[in-house]
Amino acid sequence: AFVLGILADKVSVNIPFIVALLIINTLLGAYIAIAMHRTILLAETPVTVKRRTYFVYIQCLLGILIIFTPAIALYLIPYIGLELGVIPSKAKDLVSDIGLALAVIFVSLAMTGYCLILPSVAIDKDLPFATTWEMSKKHFGTLFICVIMVAIVTSITEYLLRDLLGLNLIANLYSWLAFVVEITILSVAYRTIINPNCGTITPPVRG
User: Fold this and answer.
1) pLDDT band for position 3 (50/70/90)?
2) Are 26 and 53 in contact (CB under 8 A)?
3) Which of 111, 105, 106 is nearest to 133 (CA)?
4) Other beta carbons less than 10 A from residue 148's beta carbon
5) How much is the CA Rg of the chain, to the nearest whole Å?
6) Which of 7, 12, 77, 135 reaches 20 to 30 Å from 18, CA-CA?
7) Tens digits of per-residue pLDDT, 108-154?
8) How far is it, in rounded angstroms, from Cα 31 to Cα 38?
9) 167 falls in which pLDDT band (50, 70, 90)?
């Protein structure tokens, strides 16, 4: 991901390249995330990422992205309200910010509720989306702080480094370190909330 970030800064921007870069970044990031989860949760050395585990992990990522899709509608709601006259025209400059805030809130809540499915899949433990949500609700506040707030803080820091200070190389390195920290936090949260017996023979999953 660090190398891909550097390439993105060096190559002139064009849509096909950016799309390809995002796909490669996602696939590579998924592999690294699985390896980290298995190292932290199972103390697996060397790490073995099975083909089935990798594909199921990608499927779960896509499933979470599908869950995120209502955020698009939420983003558009203020624009519709403006057209219908529900939102006064004098507030039209705030419409974009309101829509973005609604979308971010929805994505944050959804990610908090479903994020624990990723470390579970990484260690070959099937955890349905519905079960993940029900178990996460009991620790929603803790998960929100651990996962979402950390992501927000790291994103703000990366924005300051990249966009305000122009330190692209340092920002790319920082984003990689932030990714490692976020995966580590997610693994610890999974062990604490879902499966405290990771690393033992056939660890049970709370249900």
Assistant:
1) very low
2) no
3) 111
4) 17
5) 19
6) 77
7) 889 889 999 999 999 998 888 888 898 888 888 888 887 778 878 87
8) 11
9) confident
CB < 8 Å & 24+ apart, contacts of 162-171: 168/5, 168/6, 168/9, 169/6, 169/9, 171/5
One-letter amino acid for residue 93 of the chain: D
Taking the CA atoms of residue 190, residue 191, residue 195 and residue 198 in that order, the dihedral angle to the nearest 10 degrees is 130
Maximum Cα–Cα distance for the chain, whole Å? 63
**Cα dist. 13→10, 16, 124, 176 in Å?**
9, 9, 38, 21
CA-CA distance, 187 to 33, in Å (whole number)?
10
> In this structure, are residues 171 and 162 in contact, taking their beta carbons and an 8 Å threshold?
yes
pTM of the model: 0.78
Angle ∠(61,63,64) on CA atoms, nearest 5:
65
Neighbours of 38 (CB within 10 A): 24
Name the one residue in this structure whose structure tokens are 């073995």.
Answer: 48
Measured from the Cβ of residue 145, the count of other Cβ atoms closer than 10 Å reads 12
DSSP 205: -
